[in-house]
From TrEMBL:
Higher taxonomy: Bacteria, Bacillati, Actinomycetota, Actinomycetes, Pseudonocardiales
Domain HTH luxR-type, first and last residues per copy: 143-208
4-aspartylphosphate PTM positions: D55
Keywords: DNA-binding, Phosphoprotein, Transcription, Transcription regulation
Pfam family for this entry, one: Response_reg
Source organism (scientific name): Solihabitans fulvus
Presence of the UniProt keyword Phosphoprotein in the record: yes
Protein name: Response regulator transcription factor
Gene3D superfamilies named among the record's database cross-references: 3.40.50.2300
Gene Ontology MF terms: DNA binding
UniProt keyword Lyase present: no
Length: 212
């Protein structure tokens, strides 16, 4: 099954480079390009990509606004990966809070970039614990009440999610089945109103449930 990718960046050279990287893979294809955030939602409706590579800093409508509008207005929206020049950037954190599944640096190696696209296309998140912790500590807002919403086991699973462990790794850590962990993760996302693991972990940091 070919993963369909939409490339969004206001620089022609960057879009061209990303297209070359993606189209070189037999299981990935670029179905369209956009030069501004304003073009994203109409193109997604027309082209139905699985993943959007979204530049975070663009004039007029940036990647944060484009991500938020896309996820709020399109049924079954694609996954969004923010592509950025700077790792410790408030724009990146706000895009993750808006619903992006993760971020990549523009200097990321091509092999790592295409693997990230595959990962996100199959429903996972690009969770970099150290980076997200640093972003949350610098730009995070304060919340509360998270611990009261979760069972003891769900709380334990969320803490392990925040360390970057996969479902399989969490299952091994807790000596339970993979299906059990998937159930816990689904319950956590539902209780927190989180689209994926990235949003759940951000909520854990912002509530103080996981120390920043």
């Amino acid at each position: 099954m070919t993963v369909r990718v939409l490339v969004v960046d206001d620089e022609d050279l960057v879009r061209t480079g990303l297209r070359v990287i993606v189209d070189a893979e037999p299981d990935l294809t670029v179905v369209g390009e956009a030069a501004s955030g304003a073009e994203v939602t109409p193109l997604v409706r027309a082209l139905r990509p699985d993943v959007v590579l979204m530049d975070v800093r663009m004039p007029k409508i940036d990647g944060i606004q484009a991500t938020r509008h896309l996820l709020e207005s399109v049924p079954e929206p694609p996954r969004v990966i923010v592509v950025t020049t700077f790792e410790n950037d408030e724009y990146v954190y706000d895009a993750l809070r808006a619903g992006a599944s993760g971020f990549l640096l523009k200097r990321t190696r091509p092999d790592a970039m295409v693997q990230a696209i595959r990962l996100v296309a199959h429903g996972d998140s690009l969770l970099f614990p150290a980076s997200i912790r640093e972003l949350a500590a610098t730009y995070g807002r304060s919340g509360g009440g998270l611990a009261a919403e979760l069972t003891a086991r769900e709380a334990e699973v969320l803490r392990l999610m925040a360390t970057g462990l996969s479902n399989g790794e969490i299952a091994a850590e807790l000596y339970v089945s993979l299906e059990t962990i998937k159930t816990h993760v689904g319950n956590i996302l539902g209780k927190l109103g989180a689209r994926d693991r990235t949003q759940a972990v951000i909520a854990a940091y912002e509530s103080g449930f996981v120390p920043r």
